[in-house]
Design goal:
19 strands, single chain, 5 helices, SH3 type barrels, Fumarylacetoacetate hydrolase, domain 2, mainly beta, 12-stranded mixed sheet, binds magnesium ion, about 40% strand
Length: about 260
């Protein structure tokens, strides 16, 4: 099931994507509330997907947890950026946080900060948490998952290196595009994660290449932080990260979910 958050006129609501009964395209079945909190009661209203503005499918009230260096080929390329210190794959998932003010939705602008000289895309699979969880074992970690979406862990690489920690470099407003919707069922064994800039393929990986699996990541994060409904975990980026400049359009596509597109200004 695919769940979007959208604006139609003055209304902001959630909806379930559904084929129109007359076969004329995709519609949204409007939900009465936030499905993470209140389930799937509908209002009975149906809207054409093409006639609404999609928003970020979730605004975390609590946190976005990022996982650094979780694809081996990306660990290798980061060796050049960080001067050799990043050459080894971490033995346990490396965590960082992004503020919820960094979240934007599909087609929203990624705004390049004037103080950053090199801003890069990191296309990633994002996990949306559906229930409160603490100290989960990996075997039960998927019980906490509501669904999955596409994310761009936009990063000011020069500031990441200069600061030595990542809060500012990854935390600017607009640096966490999410969307276009949440897919509640996803085969995690070999889902392609691809990033294109102006239509050109820049990153192409698969969840089969993850150093730490999705359940391992969730279990690990839940040892540190209580996971709350609506929290988002970014699962790491494959090789091929590179610069974004004003005028670019960047697209993150995860197989089985869809594509998240954002202009850069
Ligand atoms: Mg990342």
């Amino acid at each position: 099931m695919r769940i979007a958050r959208f604006r139609a006129g003055d209304t902001i609501a959630f909806g379930v994507l559904d084929e129109a009964e007359d076969g004329s395209g995709i519609e949204l079945v409007e939900l009465a509330g936030d499905p993470v909190a209140t389930g799937y009661e509908t209002t009975g209203r149906r809207l054409r997907l093409a006639e609404v503005r999609l928003l970020a499918p979730v605004i975390p009230r609590s946190k976005i947890v990022g996982i650094g260096k979780n694809y081996l080929d990306h660990v290798a390329e980061m060796k050049d950026v960080t001067g050799g210190g990043g050459a080894e794959a971490p033995t346990e998932p490396l965590l960082f946080l992004k503020p919820n003010t960094s979240v934007i939705g599909p087609d929203d602008d990624i705004v390049l900060p004037g103080i950053a000289e090199r801003v890069e895309h990191e296309g990633e699979l994002a996990v949306v948490i559906g229930r409160t969880a603490k100290n989960l074992p990996a075997e039960r970690a998927m019980e906490a998952v509501f669904g999955f979406t596409c994310a761009n862990d936009v990063s000011a690489r020069d500031l990441q290196v200069r600061d030595g920690q990542w809060a500012r470099a990854k935390g600017f407003d607009t640096f966490c595009p999410l969307g276009p919707w949440i897919e509640t069922e996803l085969d995690l064994s070999d889902a392609r994660v691809e990033t294109r800039v102006n239509g050109e393929l820049r990153q192409s990986g698969s969840t089969a290449q993850l150093i730490h699996s999705i359940p391992q990541i969730i279990a690990h994060v839940s040892q540190a932080f209580t996971l709350l409904p609506g929290d988002v975990i970014l699962t790491g980026t494959p090789a091929g990260v590179g610069p974004l400049v004003a005028g670019d359009t960047v697209e993150v596509a995860v197989e089985g979910i869809g594509a998240l597109r954002n202009p850069v200004v």
